[in-house]
Write a structure and sequence with these properties.
Length: about 350
Amino acid sequence: MLKKILLLLVIIAAGAIAYLSLRPDAPVEVSVFKVQRGTISNQLDLVGTVINDRSVTITALLDGEIINTFVREGARVKEGDPLAELDSEAAMLQLTKARADLNYQQTNLLQVEKNLLMQQNLADKGSATRQSVDDAVLESRRIEAAVEVAKAELAIRELFLKNAKIKAPFTGTIITQSAEKGQWVEAGTQLFVLVADEGQVVEAEVDADDAALISLGQVAQLSSESSIGQPWNSEIVWLAPSITRDSNGVSNTFAIRIALDDTAPPLLLDQQLDVSLIVESVDDALVIPQQALREPVSGDFAVMVVNNDQVTLKSISTGVFSLSDVEVTEGIAEGDSIVLSSSGPIIDGQSVRVISE
């Protein structure tokens, strides 16, 4: 009797197991995305820095004490604006001396020219020798040369006096100031560094592996924290002719420069900007979120297509990848519903229930 009861229980358990194994699973809940057409772009996101290659170091052109400074570091100046002034008393005295020397030599020249004329007249009358005439000619030429030397010296002294006033050679911003009132400087001492307003560009470093994607004239989108929500477009105007390696010789990059025009907001030197380069773009493409991609085999992509509350795994061919989307070139069609997420694991042929699109 006991054996019969045990056999009955085994039969019942086997039947239960068979029923459970053959019972269709409950549908898995899924959210789907309807495949649509649009534009997709692949971009490089870089960090750029505002630079300006047009800069000049302004130095003292004569020895002297700085008696006044008119600008400080960070000041914007126009061409010809005074920056500093050196004590010009010595230069003024040297200028006065040079003028006196010139006047002296010009007076001498008048005298020797009169003497030359007299010697020539006397020689014509036979009252002077040819030697005396030649001597008068040589003296006249010597004094003429002395006059030219005095004129050059006067011009130098005038220039020295002019150089006592330091002026901006072009419009720009003072980024370094070394001059202070009361400071004694020698000719050649650095006083200021001036960077021009014109000539600002944005420089960014690009990985050498992406060199084939970059070209002159390529459009770049720029933005900065100081102009949130107001990005602007510009273009690449310069490519570095060589690769730069870091100190470890690992990272290979090359520099690019992007123009800044009137559409750019006010920017400061060394300010950092976000740079986006569109390296590839496709219009009227089938675009799906990367979230929907499955990779049954490494390098091969597929998606789960929902049709009549059942999913089918379909292999696809891909094109351009953006940060969040991907172009599909083969495998699905516009309007297909593909699985974005599910409440549990799903396999090919499984029943599903769509809860959101």
